[in-house]
């Protein structure tokens, strides 16, 4: 009885050891040599649509998912502050234009006539003063008039000559109009005012948001009626004709990845294989995931970012879809 019990225990132990050995062998040949999966994700170029001026969203002309062409109007912003500045700039331009026209046209005819009359008056006064001086000077030479009277007449004559010259200069200046420098300054003021109007007008054009390239509206951030600041993103446009797949590849698999090489990957969402050409490779740095192998006497394995573009257009391939490579 005791011998039979020992035989049963020994048989059970041998059976257990055999089962462990069989499982170990199966695991070695199956799990140890299992297929390695490298998974990537499709990405596409995106650009953000934003405005140079703050404003309130007045209207959207597109929705998320809509296809757009370059130049299409996407949205309109309302910017009353900019419109007020435009009115100010236009008023300043009109004032500068009026000043310039005045400088070009010269003195008004009424002012020119008044200057001429003042000159004629000064000429008449000069003639009288000259005659009076000559008469008094002759009487002085004859001994009839005192020297003081002659000196007073001479002073009056000299003063009238100065007055006549001044009146003539005023008339000449009125006839010639504004100086060349004044005209140039007035013209420069006009150009400056035009520049201010053009600047504000460019800001107004920025309230009409347009697509800079073909694509698909992937995201719209604000709602109608919301305020947006300068440079705030309004929406994202994805350029689906510029799409690629990014893989994170451990360096022990890099021997099959070189820039310019073609690779095949399975796209689960489309249930098809596609061929891609590698265009970019770069290590992800120390912040990337490493595979620690030093405990087995080997070395740590770094991860590299690999980008690949489809060799031919893959219909319906969209950002976010997975691409699978089996190694």
UniProtKB/TrEMBL annotation:
PANTHER family linked: 36 KDA ANTIGEN, 36 KDA ANTIGEN-RELATED
N-terminal signal peptide: none
Name of the protein described by the UniProt record: Efflux RND transporter periplasmic adaptor subunit
Lineage, top ranks: Bacteria, Pseudomonadati, Bacteroidota, Bacteroidia, Bacteroidales
CDD domains cross-referenced by the UniProt entry: biotinyl_domain
Listed transmembrane segments: 9-31
Xref: SUPFAM superfamilies: HlyD-like secretion proteins, Single hybrid motif
Domain YbhG-like alpha-helical hairpin, residue spans: 82-202
Record's keyword terms, sorted: Membrane, Transmembrane, Transmembrane helix
A Pfam family the protein falls into: HH_YBHG
């Amino acid at each position: 009885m005791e011998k039979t019990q020992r035989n049963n225990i020994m048989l059970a132990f041998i059976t257990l050891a055999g089962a462990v050995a069989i499982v170990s062998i199966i695991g070695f040949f199956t799990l140890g040599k299992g297929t390695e999966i490298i998974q990537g994700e499709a990405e596409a170029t995106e650009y953000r649509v934003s405005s140079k001026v703050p404003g309130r969203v007045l209207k959207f002309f597109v929705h998320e998912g809509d296809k757009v062409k370059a130049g299409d109007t996407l949205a309109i912003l309302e910017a009353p502050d900019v419109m007020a500045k435009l009115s100010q700039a236009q008023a300043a331009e009109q004032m500068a234009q009026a000043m310039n026209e005045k400088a070009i046209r010269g003195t008004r005819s009424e002012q020119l006539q008044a200057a001429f009359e003042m000159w004629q008056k000064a000429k008449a006064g000069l003639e009288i003063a000259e005659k009076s001086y000559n008469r008094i000077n002759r009487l002085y030479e004859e001994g009839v008039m005192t020297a003081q009277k002659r000196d007073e007449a001479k002073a009056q004559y000299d003063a009238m000559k100065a007055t006549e010259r001044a009146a003539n200069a005023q008339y000449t200046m009125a006839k010639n109009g504004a100086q060349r420098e004044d005209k140039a300054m007035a013209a420069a003021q006009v150009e400056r005012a035009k520049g201010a109007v053009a600047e504000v007008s460019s800001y107004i054009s920025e309230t009409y948001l347009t697509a800079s390239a073909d694509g698909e509206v992937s995201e719209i951030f604000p709602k109608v009626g919301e305020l947006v600041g300068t440079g705030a993103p309004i929406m994202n446009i994805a350029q689906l004709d510029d799409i690629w797949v990014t893989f994170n590849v451990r360096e022990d698999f890099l021997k099959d990845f070189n820039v310019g090489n073609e690779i095949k990957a399975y796209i689960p969402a489309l249930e098809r294989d596609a061929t891609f050409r590698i265009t970019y490779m770069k290590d992800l740095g120390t912040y990337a995931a490493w595979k620690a192998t030093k405990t087995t006497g080997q070395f740590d394995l770094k991860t590299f970012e690999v980008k690949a573009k489809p060799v031919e257009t893959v219909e319906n391939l969209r950002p976010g879809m997975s691409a699978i490579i089996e190694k």
